[in-house]
C-alpha cells in the first residue's frame, strides 16, 4: 500500500509487518519475541537513540547505577527466571564486570549495573535475529522520531521527523516514560533549565566538592543522583525535598511467604489490601521473618486489583497508599542504599517533607528554591549551589510536549487511561480511541499502560507483555 488513510499519495512509503515506535527495553523485547515466532515477518523499530534495547534506563554508564533487583529477579525471558543469571555468569567468566568479584555473593544475588543489563538485552535481541533470519524474518533499526501516526482497520502509517513515511500491518507504541522535566508545566517553573541530570557524573565533577546540592524528589532517581555525586567527588551537603519525606527501603532477599491474596480473592479495595498487608507484616515480624516477604507476594496481584478497582478506589490508592507503596515496594539496591544511609547518618544528607513550589531569583550566583514544608501553610525558600530534579515521570500524555502524543490525541486515536495515567487499551494492549473503539492495528505496551495496570514498567512486566503481544500480533494467541 502506498497511500495514507487520508488519501495522501506518498511514493517514499516503506512497508513492514510490524512498526515498533520506540526501541528501549519494550521495543527490543517485542522485536525479539516476534522474530522467535514461526513465520516470516519484517519488523521496523523506530528509535532516535543510537542503540536498541537501552532507552533511558539501560543507557547508564556508571557501574554504581544498578538494577533495583538482583539477577534472579530480572530475567527478560518469562519462561526462564534464571536467564539473566546464566547470561551474567558467562559474561563475568569471560572477564566482564571484574568489579563484581568484590561482592562475595552468588551471581543470582548480584545487582548488575544497568549498562551491563543493556548488553544482555542486546545480546538476546541479536540471538533472536539469528533465529528469525533462518525463516527470512528481519528487524531493522530506523533512527528517527515518529512525529505522527494514522491507523485504521487496514494498517498503520507513521511519519518520521526526517520526512520518511512507514506503513505497517500493525503499529505498537513502545514509547516508554516521559520525564516530568519534559513537560511544559515543569519547564515553566524553570526547574529543567537550572537542574543537573541525575546521571551526569561529569557535569557533577565540575561542581565545587563542598557545594550544597538540592534534590527534588526522594525515590530511586534521587538514590542514583546521590551515587553520581559520590562518584563525582562531591563531599558537601545534600538537601532532599519530597512531599512525604520518605526514603526508599533497602531491597533484601526475603524468604517465600504464603500468597494471601490468592487465598482470599475477597480482598479488593485499597483499604482491605492495606489492612490485610499490615496484618501479614505484623505476623511475619512476630515469626521472625522479614516484612518484605508478605509485601513481595502483593506484586503478582497488583495489576488485577488495579484493573478491577473503581476510579474512586484508584484515587484512594494514589492519594493514601502510593507514597508508601513507592518507598516500600520500589526498593533501593543494597550498595546504593548503604551510601544514602551513611550520608544520612553523617548528617551530610538531609531529607525534608516539603513540596517544590518554584525557583527563586538569586542575586549571588547561587540557586534558591521555594518550598512548602508538610503541615505548614507558608512557603519558605532554601538556597543551594546546584539542583537535581529527580521528581519523576509525566504519565499524563496531554501534558507531554512531544509531537507524537499530541498528534495521537488530536486525531482521537488514543484516550487517556484511568486517572489520566498513560493511555487506554484492552487487556491485550489494543489501544482504545477517543470514541471508545478498540483498535485492530494499533497497540501499546510498557509504561504507556500505567493507568491500565498501575505497575507496567519493571523489567518483568515488560517481558511478559512483549511475549503476549507478539503472540497476539502474529495470531497465535
Ligand atoms: C533510570 C531508570 C532506572 C530503572 N531501573 C529499573 C530497574 O532497576 N528495574 C526495573 O525493573 N525497571 C527499572 N526501570 C524501569 C524501566 O523504564 C523499564 O524497565 C524500561 O526502561 C521500559 O522500557 P521501555 O522501552 O518501555 O521504555 P524506555 O526505556 O523509556 O524506552 C522508550 C524509547 O522510546 C523512544 N521513543 C519515545 N517516543 C518516540 C517516538 N515518538 N519515536 C521514536 N522513538 C520514541 C525513546 O527514545 C526511548 O528510547 C528504570 C527506569 C529508569 C528510567
TrEMBL record:
Pfam families in UniProt: NAD_binding_9
Record-linked InterPro entries: FAD/NAD-bd_sf (IPR036188), HpyO/CreE_NAD-binding (IPR038732), L-asp_N-monooxygenase_NS-form (IPR052189)
Domain FAD-dependent urate hydroxylase HpyO/Asp monooxygenase CreE-like FAD/NAD(P)-binding intervals: 20-177
Coiled coil, from the record: none
Domain of life per record: Bacteria
Protein name in UniProt: Pyridine nucleotide-disulfide family oxidoreductase
Amino acid at each position: 500500500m502506498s497511500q495514507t488513510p487520508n488519501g495522501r499519495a506518498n511514493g517514499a512509503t516503506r512497508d513492514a509487518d510490524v512498526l515498533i515506535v520506540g526501541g528501549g527495553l519494550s521495543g527490543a523485547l517485542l522485536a525479539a519475541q516476534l522474530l522467535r515466532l514461526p513465520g516470516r515477518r519484517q519488523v521496523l523499530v523506530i528509535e532516535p537513540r543510537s542503540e536498541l534495547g537501552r532507552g533511558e534506563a539501560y543507557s547508564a554508564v556508571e557501574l554504581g547505577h544498578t538494577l533495583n533487583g538482583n539477577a534472579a529477579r530480572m530475567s527478560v525471558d518469562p519462561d526462564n527466571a534464571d536467564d539473566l543469571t546464566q547470561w551474567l555468569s558467562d559474561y563475568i567468566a569471560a572477564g566482564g564486570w571484574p568489579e563484581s568479584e568484590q561482592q562475595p555473593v552468588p551471581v543470582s544475588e548480584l545487582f548488575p549495573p544497568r549498562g551491563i543489563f543493556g548488553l544482555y538485552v542486546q545480546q538476546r535481541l541479536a540471538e533472536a535475529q539469528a533465529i528469525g533470519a533462518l525463516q527470512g524474518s528481519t528487524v531493522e533499526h530506523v533512527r528517527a522520531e515518529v512525529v505522527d501516526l494514522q491507523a485504521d482497520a487496514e494498517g498503520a502509517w507513521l511519519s518520521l521527523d526526517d520526512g520518511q513515511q512507514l506503513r505497517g500491518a500493525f503499529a505498537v507504541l513502545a514509547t516508554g516514560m516521559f520525564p516530568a522535566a519534559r513537560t511544559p508545566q515543569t519547564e515553566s517553573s524553570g526547574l529543567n533549565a537550572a537542574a543537573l541530570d541525575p546521571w551526569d557524573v561529569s557535569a557533577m565533577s565540575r561542581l565545587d566538592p563542598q557545594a550544597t546540592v538540592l534534590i527534588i524528589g526522594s525515590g530511586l532517581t534521587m538514590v542514583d543522583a546521590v551515587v553520581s555525586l559520590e562518584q563525582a567527588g562531591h563531599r558537601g551537603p545534600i538537601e532532599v525535598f519530597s512531599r512525604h519525606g520518605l526514603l526508599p527501603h533497602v531491597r533484601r532477599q526475603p524468604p517465600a511467604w504464603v500468597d494471601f491474596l490468592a487465598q482470599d480473592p475477597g480482598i479488593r479495595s485499597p483499604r482491605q489490601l492495606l489492612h490485610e498487608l499490615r496484618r501479614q507484616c505484623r505476623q511475619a515480624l512476630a515469626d521472625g521473618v522479614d516484612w518484605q516477604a508478605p509485601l513481595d507476594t502483593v506484586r503478582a496481584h497488583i495489576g488485577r486489583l488495579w484493573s478491577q478497582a473503581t476510579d474512586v478506589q484508584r484515587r484512594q490508592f494514589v492519594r493514601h497508599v502510593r507514597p508508601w507503596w513507592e518507598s516500600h515496594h520500589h526498593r533501593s539496591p543494597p550498595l546504593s542504599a548503604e551510601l544514602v544511609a551513611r550520608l544520612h547518618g553523617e548528617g551530610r544528607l538531609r531529607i525534608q517533607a516539603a513540596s517544590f513550589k518554584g525557583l527563586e531569583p538569586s542575586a549571588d550566583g547561587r540557586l534558591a528554591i521555594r518550598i512548602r514544608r508538610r503541615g505548614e501553610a507558608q512557603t519558605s525558600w532554601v538556597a543551594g549551589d546546584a539542583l537535581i530534579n529527580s521528581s519523576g515521570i509525566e504519565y499524563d500524555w496531554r501534558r507531554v510536549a512531544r509531537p507524537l502524543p499530541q498528534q495521537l490525541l488530536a486525531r482521537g486515536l488514543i484516550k487517556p487511561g484511568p486517572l489520566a495515567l498513560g493511555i487506554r487499551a484492552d487487556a491485550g494492549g489494543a489501544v482504545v480511541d477517543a470514541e471508545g473503539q478498540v483498535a485492530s492495528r494499533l497497540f501499546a505496551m510498557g509504561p504507556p499502560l500505567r493507568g491500565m495496570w498501575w505497575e507496567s514498567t519493571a523489567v518483568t512486566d515488560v517481558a511478559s507483555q512483549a511475549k503476549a503481544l507478539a503472540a497476539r500480533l502474529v495470531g497465535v494467541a
